[in-house]
């Protein structure tokens, strides 16, 4: 007869008592051998019913007794072979789930001792001999038979957090196998082993649950270790799913059974690790159709709520949606939502440029996957979205945003226009002029019906040539060169040509020599300076001249520094009947004139500004933060003492700072009326581009006012200006305000800054810290950090000065 159940428990308790009290090696080995019979695999193994009762009821208690009574006194009574057969085997051959929990709980509860090191050694062997795959396989069987959910949840937490437990316990004495970079790749290999056994079971017609493996994968990824586990798991799954449909089904179930709270981490990991859309489709199947959370992650979170992934990830993601007919409706849905975001004026204004670039890339990739029937059925909606989004982008103050708008609009137009003209932007670039984009209709080429992402053509490329290029050139070999135009030599003659002449050649020649005439004839210039400044300010380009805007601007700068017409220019900035471009030209001229006046001249005559001095960029298309950082770096470099060997450095030119007496005349008229709207001009309203340019110009004027009498008063007024506009919604304006703070910190004497503007200084410091952490624009954050460092250096300098 089979023994009663209580007899197995009695044998276990007797064995534990022997281990705790006996110091007889034979008695200990006999007690362990008796219990070993209940594990099976021996000649004298116990009956099946007793073995099942032992593993189900008594095994964990026996292991805990075995560990708690472990001591070097009796373990040394066993030979090395006996230790492996009668002690190690219980941990390496018994039920892996129970073994793992007992070992880990014992390690956590023990102090430094011989017993602790022995248990750690056993856990290391457990991992090295496939213990984790055995553990997961056993749990998969328990789940198929409705196992205990509480036990499985505990086991899941221990499996995923093993490196954390061991690191906290062992600290500097931790073993390499327990390091996260080693443990999680090992766990991935063990997962593949479990999946292989599941595959074999399915081929034999047996049911098996994969849920626990999915939970392990999901929790590991959620804990921030998806890189370590997926770098091993994904390549193996790629190979196994190439030709085997059962493995494909297993892989699909693996991700489908991941709990919703962890599905995002798993999907993101697979999308990043897959080398292509076809591989991703093979690994995920139709997960986005079956799982709403996965669909939300793929169509919303990865595309609209972040922008950190590379273009290859976007191609994988959108290509995955396009590869299966059941998923293509999501591709159309995603494209419409991307266009809605792209065309939102609020998103264009408040989201970082990097995010807008990310959305634009996604739109172009979606367009490349559209089929003709899809274009025909959604063409009108796409066209409407394109028109609204194009306007929002072209209204932006940031050149990168405007260019993105042009590229995306051209791409949409080329894809949805099957016949007739499509949208094409004619972009004209001058060296120091802002790009002016005008949408025009051009004939659509027939050779490329499906452009994925049309690029802006390079200057001089064949794409810029129009249809007239097909005409046969006229033979001009017999023509004679016309006599060169006589250029004016007097400034008054230049004024007459610019205001009344219809001779375009003479008009062009006048523009090219005007600056040099002004600088050579300073006395004559002073007589007609006001008249000349008015002519130049209102001058329009009658015929195309390369660099016309630059020529006009340089001539105005020459007039301004020869006979300071600053009062006229500053008064005209807030006058009626001026275009925005003219107002911005005034700001550019004042900034350039201030720079030239502030530079010492080696001789008594006015000369063009040195090419080695910091260059003020006045183009809206330039990156103001980078230019300002370069100027600040120049100032920092000039204040840094360096010991050099070899050839002596050339002494810089010395001379009076002509800007010193004029700084207030440049600065205060510009800053005093910014909050007073005019009929055609409202800085605090729609004209925020000019407001941004004003902020940058004031920052430049403040920068060149260093060591001037008016510097402190200018700094205080500029700080009030910054404080009033600090929450402006336009990033270009905020960049100008942050540049203004930089110039204040560099130009206002530190003593005056902290004595006369203490409260303003502290409030600005708090605001800068907030901008550095939360501003959506990357340039604003960088400028804020730069200003915080300048403030910190300023305070350190003052603390080092003895009182």
Automatic annotation (TrEMBL):
Region (Disordered), start-end ranges: 430-470, 600-625
UniProt keyword annotation of Nucleus present: yes
GO biological process: 'de novo' cotranslational protein folding
One GO location term (cellular component): nucleus
Domain TELO2 ARM repeat: 330-417
Gene Ontology terms, MF aspect: Hsp90 protein binding; telomeric DNA binding
Polar residues bias spans: 434-446
Record's compositionally biased regions (Acidic residues): 459-470
Alphabetized UniProt keyword annotations: Cytoplasm, Membrane, Nucleus
Source organism superkingdom: Eukaryota
The protein's name in its UniProt record: Telomere length regulation protein TEL2 homolog
Native source species: Chelonoidis abingdonii
